[in-house]
Amino acid sequence: xxxxxxxxxxxxxxxxxxxxxxxxxxxxxxxxxxxxxxxxxxxxxxxxxxxxxxxxxxxxxxxxxxxxxxxxxxxxxxxxxxxxxxxxxxxxxxxxxxxxxxxxxxxxxxxxxxxxxxxxxxxxxxxxxxxxxxxxxxxxxxxxxxxxxxxxxxxxxxxxxxxxxxxxxxxxxxxxxxxx
Length: 180
Prior knowledge:
mainly beta; 7-stranded parallel sheet; 0% helix
């Protein structure tokens, strides 16, 4: 088991540059330690890849271990391949649900989420904005399994101007607005 922690006093943001690939396999816990919501972010630039290959779904990206409600922005301009990931507590502006939040896939990006759990987002769990998105797998969960104050406040999956979207065999739970 491996735990990677980015402390708040570090320049802190995870940035994968064009041409770069970051791969997490099984048993990795990636913690973004911060002192307030939105302070530290994950960004995958155009031409970059972030892969979580965890068939047993034992790899997790999470916010601060001491205060999990300190959420983090997740921006994808490149490629995200998540077969078997757990991604929790992504950031979104709860005061303006017309803005994207969660895992935000920007124009030209690609995201493949298979048998993954994308849970406990501030607002929307996954946003496809003029991007390619595939969300599938019988073990895929978007949102939160049980109702609580931590339930996502927006949509499970928000699709905007994205003609190449495939959603198949997944569960979308406890979103306060629309599932998809």
